[in-house]
Amino acid sequence: MEATGEQRRAPVSLEASALTRCRHRVFLDAAYPDELAAAAPNAGAVQRQEAAAAHRDMIRQRLVADDPDRWVVIEPDGPMARRADRTLEACRAGADRIWGAVLPLEADTGRRGRSEILLRDTERGGYIPVVVVNHKVTDPGRGAVTSDLFEWAPVVDENRKVRAQLRDQMRVAQLHRMLERHGLASPAKVAGAIGYGGDCILVHDLESILDDYDERFADRLEIARGNVATVPSQIGECRTCPWWPRCRRELAERRDVSLVAPGQRAVVLRELDVRTIDGLAGWTGDPPEVWPQGSFEDAIVVAKAWLADVPLVRRYRQVTVQRADVEIDVDMESYHEHGAYLWGTLLNTDVQSVYRPFVTWRPVPTEDEARSFAEFWTWLSAERRAAERRGKTFAAYCYSRSAEDKWLLSSARRFHGYPGVPSEQEVKAFISTPQWVDVYQAVTDQFVCPNGKGLKKIAPIAGHRWRDDEAGGEASMSWYREAVGYEGEPDPSQRARLLEYNEDDVIATKVLREWMSDRAVLDIPHIDDL
Predict the structure, then answer these.
(1) Contact between 98 and 160 (Cβ < 8 Å)
(2) In contact, 213 and 169? CB cutoff 8 Å
(3) Which of 287, 389, 396, 526 has a CA that sits 20 to 30 A from residue 262's CA?
(4) Could you tell me the end-to-end alpha-carbon distance of the chain, in angstroms, rounded to an integer?
């Protein structure tokens, strides 16, 4: 579907989030607002919004409680226009700090925006916008410019480096432009962001951002007004987009190449006049000089598999995966960056398989994580030693080890000195051994996966099924909030649901490696068979 000026005549307005969003989605959002309003909310998006709201509220309480007399709080009730009036009144009265600021909708430019904080620039006049976000804005390192939370005093930080967040940059740039409209922007052309952890304000230099912002805003505004044509193309954002079913049908009808080579890969192929899956499947000659991601040969295989309706393709004649006499499957569950609340295990011997969870039901972060983590590590280490004493081989398995490695190492650091908690060096020594096996890597090395390599995609091919139809990482976040009672009394049924989901995950890795060892060569075609 292409945008035309006739399809959208009503005035449009854009928040800064549109500037980092799919261009075709910007058109659809503006052209069909009723359909957008009626679309079922994405469960993961709702959960992230709830977590972000809780984070903002926590930051507000800390800051306002520190010095209530410095703050004007714009209550989040009532029409946006009334809140915008109150914000301007507070600014013109010289308020030192404003929480919950809403800037007036600009009918002519199409801008709308809200800032969690406006700080008065006591040296130069005007206001500095500061947003509060529920993701990391810095990483360990040096070179970021940061300020203390309670007193605006930017300095080069010797302990933090910037974690680039384009969406934050576009948001503060838009707020600065909106403040300029009313003569309220600080001449310093700086802004801030308080991220997850809430330990500092990252300072953004708007001089390096505003040109990009202006270009992006002009482009998205013309799209939203129907003056620039757009067409769908699959990108990562499609997974959570309310318009994806519509776009997917359109892409499938024209057998669009982005269905098998999404994102920048599709851009490269279209520049080479390869626009369909059939065209990619029939590619002859040398690969493109520049290929954005992965193997170009794999992209051709994925196209052929799509045409043949094949969910998985073998790279080699034989399929292998490391096996052992004693095998333990491990799956960790965490809640955002707050902590790892569950270490699920499945102990497999030649006699039986036994599921055992190590869990805390106190809301993370909590020191009780140290107890559950220590119990998990002590048990795992004991099983390794017992296997060694009996002369048995041992292996522990996970699927996509990055998350498990992250929480193993961070838990060792956070809880250093607690009884039973290993040192970071001890954890590193274990995860660097062949006894720590990533089944995801075994799948990646030996299969081309047209539909993705996630456990929920691959394990069903091996015959595994999750008992809960809603099972998934994002759904589990909502279950967790209910299980620990974030909004009320803890729900024991959701605790049982999480344990069942975790058990099914560890069983899935067991089923998958057994299938790889026994039947994959019979079930899955080889590349040469396509």
Answers:
(1) no
(2) yes
(3) 526
(4) 33
pTM, full prediction:
0.85
Q: Whole-angstrom Cα distance, residue 139 to residue 253?
A: 44
Q: What is the DSSP letter of 449?
A: -
Please give the single-letter amino acid code of residue 465: R
> Whose CA is closest to 467, among 491, 513, 498, 493?
498
Pull the structure tokens for residue 414. 């956070």
Best CA proximity match to 346, nearest among 514, 475, 518, 520 = 514
CA distances to 138, 143, 179, 189, 193 from 164, rounded to whole Å, are 8, 13, 24, 18, 12
Contact 185, 101 (CB under 8 A): no
**CATH class of this structure's domain 326-527:** alpha beta
d(CA 216, CA 225): 14
Domain ranges within the chain, ordered by starting residue: 43-216, 254-309, 326-527
- Tracing tokens 């707050």 back to the chain, one arrives at 338
CB under 8 Å to 224, separation ≥6 — which residues? 8, 12, 14, 18, 26, 27, 29, 30, 110
- For residue 76, give the amino acid letter: P
Kindly report the backbone phi and psi dihedral angles of residue 369, in degrees, each rounded to the nearest multiple of 5, phi listed first. -60, -35
Question: Which DSSP string do the residues of 68-109 spell out, in sequence order?
Answer: GGGEEE--S-S-HHHHHHHHHHHHHTT-SEEEEEEEPP-TTT
Give the chain's length.
530
**Structure tokens, 401:** 């080890």
Q: pLDDT per position in the chain (530 positions), as tens?
A: 444 444 445 678 999 999 999 999 999 999 999 999 888 877 777 778 888 898 999 999 999 999 999 999 999 988 999 999 999 999 999 999 999 999 999 999 999 999 999 999 999 999 999 999 999 999 989 999 999 999 999 999 999 999 989 999 999 999 999 999 999 999 999 999 999 889 999 999 999 999 999 999 999 999 999 999 999 999 999 988 999 999 999 999 999 999 999 999 999 999 999 999 999 999 998 999 999 988 999 999 999 999 999 999 999 999 999 999 999 999 999 998 889 999 999 999 877 899 999 999 999 999 999 999 999 999 999 999 999 999 999 999 999 999 999 999 999 999 999 999 999 999 999 999 999 999 999 999 999 999 999 999 999 999 999 999 988 888 898 899 999 998 789 999 999 999 999 999 999 999 999 999 999 999 999 999 98
Show the tokens assigned to 183: 């003569």
Q: Cβ distance 60 to 99 under 8 Å?
A: yes
Closest CA to 220 of 7, 13, 11, 26: 26
Q: For residue 181, what are the contacts with CB-CB under 8 A and spacing of at least 6?
A: 104, 106, 109
Core vs surface per residue 44-77: b (16+ CB within 10 A) or e: beebbebbbeebbeebbeebbeeeeeebbebeee
**Cβ(327)–Cβ(511) under 8 Å?**
no
